[in-house]
Design brief:
The protein is globular, with a radius of gyration of 18 Å. It is an alpha/beta fold. It has a single domain, classed as Rossmann fold (3-Layer(aba) Sandwich), CATH 3.40.50.1820. The chain has 12 helices and 8 strands. Strands 1-2-4-3-5-6-7-8 form an 8-stranded mixed sheet, with helices on both faces. 47% of the residues are buried. Helix 2 packs across helix 3 and helix 5 packs across helix 8.
């Protein structure tokens, strides 16, 4: 277990020739790290992670989808991982993040891909789905489909901390504590997982951006009248032990969507793709294939 944070050249998927690493620049100048796998002739699937993590979230899923014939793209969202972290006010509102995801589609040459997203990324993905540029939609523990009490209550009290200071004092144990909270009872994380999720905190601009997201993003549940406008075939997945986005309002919201179904993972937490990857891969491939 390293005493220092992992340098970028050691981050997953270092040494894995099956996953290509790219840097792409969006129309607004933001540069993102994108991981690519699978046959270029296969149906496109874009994977979008949630707040304060990276594309590492999908480490158990990318190659499984590629083996199933999909052309898979997983990015570090703006303000995360090895992607740019814009600092201008308003950079991390829901609307701006949705526009940037559409810009990513454009720069990758994707017209109407299948879209799989988690937590905060799920809320962004839902917004993009309303534009008609998504073929099928999968949402894991999605913001908007449940209650996000910690963020809603803490946002007014988040100080404007200098990123350099926060980065210097940000402990590995804090990441481990978060991991313990986001997991349910059906799987567990490794020391390497903690190191991978701790690694981005070596960049002060990333920490500043993530605090900014807490202030600027829309964390409240969706209105049933809004979800009813989504005609994209949608699979909504929640762990029954999700303490980050509590699925209290989820069944009613999914019922309001014309082509949606809800899948509950017994004992699962907020990161079921990490906790039960085999089950999730089967579910994903079955749903994405239609």
């Amino acid at each position: 277990m390293p005493l220092e944070r992992l340098p970028p050249e050691q981050w997953w998927p270092a040494g894995n020739s099956a996953i290509e690493r790219r840097r792409v620049t969006l129309a607004d100048g933001t540069t993102l790290r994108v991981l690519v796998a699978g046959p270029s002739t296969g149906p496109a699937v874009v994977l979008v992670h949630g707040w304060a993590i990276t594309a590492y979230l999908w480490r158990h899923n990318i190659e499984a989808l590629a083996r199933a014939g999909y052309h898979v793209f997983a990015c570090d969202m703006p303000g995360h991982g090895l992607s740019d972290a814009p600092q201008e006010q308003g950079s991390y509102t829901l609307e701006v993040q949705a526009r940037r995801l559409l810009m990513l589609f454009d720069v990758l040459g994707l017209d109407c891909p299948k879209l799989v997203a988690q937590s905060m990324g799920g809320r962004v993905a839902f917004e993009v789905a309303l534009t008609g540029r998504v073929e099928r939609l999968v949402l894991f523990g999605s913001v908007g489909f449940g209650l996000v009490r910690p963020a809603r209550e803490l946002v007014p009290f988040i100080p404007d901390i200098r990123g350099e200071l926060l980065s210097f004092f940000f402990p590995r144990t804090a990441v481990e504590l978060v991991q313990r909270r986001v997991y349910g009872t059906i799987g567990w994380f490794t020391d390497r997982d903690v190191d991978e999720y701790w690694a981005p905190s070596q960049f002060p601009e990333i920490l500043r951006a993530q605090l900014q997201m807490l202030r600027e993003f829309t964390w409240t549940p969706l209105d049933p009248a809004v979800v009813a406008r989504c005609t994209v075939p949608t699979l909504v997945v929640f762990g029954t032990h999700d303490r980050t986005v509590r699925p209290d309002t989820t069944p009613a919201l999914v019922a309001a969507m014309p082509h949606a179904r809800l899948e509950l993972i017994g004992g699962g937490g907020h990161v079921v793709m990490e906790e039960a990857p085999d089950r999730i891969n089967t579910l994903l491939i079955e749903f994405l294939s239609g």
